[in-house]
């Protein structure tokens, strides 16, 4: 089986995003960018499946600017076998990304596509579900644990009330949640080796996908800022404050 | 505009999250509901009583019993031929189903809508709520998920909608439900509780978390939440996580105990009315957003607080 892992280059999770003064977006100039943390989890899971002998090849794919090559090299250094960059300088919406991924899936025929449940930049939480719909395949979103058995995959999902388990017929789409695994760090020798692994570059036009945006961003603004309140001296003072709020 | 709101339910009861979605939908136009489930006529009757509801579309089929997206999405997409906007609560159920509906309709979804600014214009948080985007759809149909804390709940009673049975679209046959492990609790539900007591990594382990956080929450009739660090370390189940990638809460009072205040955590609770923080580090970022802060060792302060309340 082949596993396809879409990885997105996003603002590093340790960086506090700043809104541009002209309200046109978030300032990403000179900001540290990294692989979306949920996608690291997806790459890690793919590697574990391969290590367990249940997959032969892992293909990482990113849709984004030329710099997304770095993100793909990270995936290769972790253990992916080859990479595809679909180069685009526009901010593609999840629907457009899903359409590009669909075309790649049709070409590559993976048994499993492992995506992040959401990117920490746009927080859309859509791409995996859309890809599954476009391919008319089953989806296991917010995966906490996955088990492969024959031609099916069992996915334990993190849901609002606890956990839910579904069984899907392969080929399937799975999106990762935080508890699926703890991703490894790439070792230095593997980072060196990754430089020699194949990385193909394509463009959205190669797939004949219309990527025109469907949404217009009218403005991006700062949320209301919370002011720090006061610090109280001791528990008695805290009790008095809480009682004044009328909640106890 | 005619909207179709996805009713979240367990085949017996309408879940509260539906009510905020109804309020959002009513700002766009006529409100129709979709109740898809198995043996769920009672849910449809209850849903018809929600204030402001016109028609309830009831699809009763074993294929819909467990809300599998593979089965519900084609049904919703079909009904969208006669509706202009599909509206789902931004719960794990809504987030699982709505994008699938959107893709079937070839429409871009707008996620986690916080306000309705016009027929096709909405605000939504991006970058963990560090920025708010105002977006306008250029499409004929809309697909939205709605943030529960951003809209008042519609009244559960007082409406007089009519229930209409719709044909099922059957079972896609590619997925099946296996089991569900739901945390049983007498406590208020985390996302709708008026008081939330959350604990962080400082709580050490599951026993210590229970020993210190639970009595305080009991005293306050509060729901219990946690930081990701506390969930990852196994102190509490995953559905306790508050934050960018967990649950969004906005209670009257939020207690952050032994939580540092990482941006991902703040994203889930900074719209709380009053934030109360207990942390031994006076420079912890949580104090930058807390209305009331106590710099103290929680292992001393929390039992004392519980006793004195
Ligand atoms: C005002 C505004 C400004 C923005 N500015 C920028 C910007 O400067 N730079 C920027 O990068 N984004 C920016 N975005 C976000 C951009 O539009 C998103 O890429 C797009 O909406 C996809 O959403 P998502 O990544 O949240 O999807 P999600 O559905 O949350 O992503 C889920 C998963 O899908 C996969 N995936 C998603 N996108 C890709 C991809 N491109 N390649 C491979 N896999 C992918 C990943 O596995 C990911 O974990 C901006 C958005 C807005 C509204
Ligand atoms: C992709 C991604 C998504 C994430 N999503 C979320 C999310 O949804 N929600 C979330 O919460 N986090 C999330 N995180 C994690 C987040 O970045 C932080 O790591 C996490 O919130 C830290 O949890 P904490 O505050 O409990 O732990 P810490 O940061 O370790 O803080 C513990 C605090 O306890 C205090 N303390 C220690 N001992 C005592 C004592 N005896 N008395 C009083 N105070 C004490 C310390 O001073 C410290 O401030 C995410 C991270 C990533 C990468």
Description:
The complex is a heterodimer of chains A (248) and B (309). Chain A is an alpha/beta fold. Chain A has a single domain (2-216), classed as 3-Layer(aba) Sandwich (Rossmann fold), CATH 3.40.50. Chain A is 27% helix and 31% strand. Chain A has 6 helices and 13 strands. A 9-stranded mixed sheet of chain A has the order 9-8-7-10-6-1-4-5-11, sandwiched between helices. The termini of chain A are far apart. Chain B folds into 2 domains: 2-165, HUPs (Rossmann fold, 3-Layer(aba) Sandwich); 195-308, 3-Layer(aba) Sandwich (Rossmann fold), CATH 3.40.50. In chain B, 26% of the residues lie in helices and 28% in strands. In chain B, the strands form 3 sheets. Chain B has a 7-stranded parallel sheet with strand order 5-9-4-1-2-3-10, with helices on both faces. In chain B, strands 13-12-14-15-16 form a 5-stranded parallel sheet. In chain B, helix 3 crosses helix 4 and helix 5 packs parallel to helix 8 (298-308). The radius of gyration of chain B is 21 Å and the shape is elongated. Strand 12 of chain A pairs antiparallel with strand 8 of chain B. The complex binds flavin-adenine dinucleotide (2 copies).
Summarize this structure as a short list of keywords or feature phrases.
heterodimer; A: 248 residues; alpha/beta; Rossmann fold; nine-stranded mixed sheet; two-stranded antiparallel sheet; 6 helices; 13 strands; B: 309 residues; 2 domains; seven-stranded parallel sheet; 8 helices; 16 strands; binds flavin-adenine dinucleotide; ETF_b (chain A); Electron transfer flavoprotein subunit beta (chain A); Rossmann-like_a/b/a_fold (chain A); transport (chain A)
């Amino acid at each position: 089986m082949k596993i396809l892992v879409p990885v997105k280059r996003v603002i590093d999770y340790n960086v506090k995003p700043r809104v541009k003064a002209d309200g046109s977006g978030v300032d990403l100039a000179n900001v540290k960018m990294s692989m979306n943390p949920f996608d690291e989890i997806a790459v890690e899971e793919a590697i574990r499946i391969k290590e367990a002998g249940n997959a032969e090849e892992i293909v990482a794919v990113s849709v984004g600017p030329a710099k997304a090559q770095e993100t793909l090299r990270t995936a290769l250094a972790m253990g992916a076998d080859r990479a595809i960059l679909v180069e685009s300088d526009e901010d593609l919406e999840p629907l457009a990304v899903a359409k590009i991924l669909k075309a790649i899936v049709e070409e590559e025929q993976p048994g499993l596509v492992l995506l992040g449940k959401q990117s920490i930049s746009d927080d859309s939480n859509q791409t995996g579900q859309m890809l599954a719909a476009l391919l008319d395949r089953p989806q296991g979103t917010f995966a906490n644990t996955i088990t492969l058995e024959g031609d099916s995959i069992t996915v334990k999902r993190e849901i609002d009330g606890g956990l839910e388990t579904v069984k899907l017929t392969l080929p399937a789409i799975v999106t990762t949640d935080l508890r699926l695994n703890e991703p490894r760090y790439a070792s230095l020798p593997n980072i060196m080796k990754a430089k020699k692994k194949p990385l193909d570059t394509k463009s959205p036009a190669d797939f004949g996908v219309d990527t025109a945006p469907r949404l217009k961003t009218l403005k991006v603004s700062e949320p209301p800022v919370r002011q720090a309140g006061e610090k109280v001296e001791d528990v008695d003072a805290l009790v008095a404050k809480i009682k004044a709020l009328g909640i106890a | 505009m005619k909207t179709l709101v996805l009713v979240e339910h367990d085949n017996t009861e309408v879940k509260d999250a539906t009510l905020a979605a109804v309020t959002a939908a009513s700002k766009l136009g006529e409100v129709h509901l979709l109740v898809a489930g198995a043996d769920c006529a009672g849910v449809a009757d209850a849903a018809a009583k929600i204030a402001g509801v016109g028609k309830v579309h009831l699809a009763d089929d074993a294929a819909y019993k467990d809300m599998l997206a593979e089965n519900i999405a084609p049904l919703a997409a079909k009904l969208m031929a006669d509706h202009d906007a599909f509206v789902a609560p931004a719960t794990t159920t809504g987030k699982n189903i709505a994008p699938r509906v959107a893709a079937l309709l070839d429409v871009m979804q707008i996620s986690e809508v916080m306000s309705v600014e016009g027929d096709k214009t909405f605000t939504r948080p991006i970058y963990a709520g560090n920025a708010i985007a105002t977006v306008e759809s250029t499409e004929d149909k809309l697909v939205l998920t709605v943030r529960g804390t951003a809209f008042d709940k519609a009244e559960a009673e007082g409406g007089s909608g009519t229930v209409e049975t719709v044909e099922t679209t059957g079972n896609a046959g590619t997925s099946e439900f296996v089991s569900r492990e739901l945390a049983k609790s007498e406590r208020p539900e985390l996302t709708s509780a008026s008081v939330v007591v959350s604990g962080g990594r400082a709580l050490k382990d599951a026993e210590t978390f229970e020993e210190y956080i639970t009595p305080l929450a009991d005293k306050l009739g509060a729901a219990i939440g946690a930081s990701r660090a506390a969930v990852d370390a196994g102190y509490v189940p995953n559905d306790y996580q508050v934050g960018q990638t967990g649950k969004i809460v906005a209670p009257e009072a939020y207690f952050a105990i032994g939580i540092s205040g990482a941006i991902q955590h703040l994203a889930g609770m900074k719209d709380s009315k009053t934030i109360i923080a207990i942390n031994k580090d006076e420079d912890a970022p949580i104090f930058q957003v807390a209305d009331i802060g106590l710099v103290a060792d929680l292992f001393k302060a929390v039992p004392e607080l519980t006793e004195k309340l």
